[in-house]
Amino acid sequence: MKVNLNVNGVICTSDVEPRTTLLDTLRDDLLLTGTHAGCEHGVCGACTVLLDGEPVRSCLIFSVQADGYEITTIEGVATAPGEMSVIQDAFCETHGMQCGYCTPGMILTAHALLERTHDVNREDIVEAISGNICRCTGYGQIIEAVEFAADRLKKSNVLRGTKVVRTGSAAGHDAPEKGVPEAAADAPGRGSK
Questions:
Q1: Do 1-76 and 80-156 fold alike per CATH?
Q2: For the chain, what is the radius of gyration of the CA atoms?
Q3: pTM of structure
Q4: Residue ranges per structural domain of the chain
Q5: What is the fold, at CATH topology level, of the domain defined by 80-156?
Q6: Are strands 179-181 and 164-166 parallel, antiparallel or unpaired?
Q7: Using CA atoms, how far apart are residues 77 and 82, in angstroms rounded to an integer?
Q8: Conformational region of residue 3, where left means phi above 0, alpha means psi within -120 to 50, and beta covers everything else
Q9: pLDDT, mean of each 10-residue run, the chain (193 residues)
Q10: Domain 1-76, CATH 3.10.20.30 — does that match?
């Protein structure tokens, strides 16, 4: 069956079997190999992507469920080809990676956190990345990287994402419901998280 996936701002059409996971479609059909296959049971977080801005395990979602939603992979986080996002740069600056296998999932999870929470603390970061397993770093440098990125973003004049309000699913399936931006009351400087 044909699916139209909005991946990193590009509509990609793929012919998939109904049981094909989003992970397999991203890696095998679209050749976006930054999304890693880890446990394939939704436990490790290596396959994390953003679906309408929220971190999800691509190994647990069928490609047909993601049809019509905005999918962001690690390849789509940077602001321009050959550049790194603030959070990617922070991971490099603080040595927040060793083998790098968990890094794309960690970065996407942290990216989602920093888009929705403007004054993060250590507990927020630990909670956000608690679903992503890293066997190399001991998490210290990862937490430091997210704190470093949060501090940089706080000091910049970059407008970050608006809060997303979930509405009824237009697709009629169990995929996360489509997001609708809330009023600009959540813009930085207005006192909300």
A1: no
A2: 16
A3: 0.79
A4: 1-76, 80-156
A5: DNA polymerase; domain 1 (1.10.150)
A6: antiparallel
A7: 11
A8: beta
A9: 95 95 97 95 96 97 95 93 93 93 96 94 96 91 96 79 39 35 33 37
A10: yes
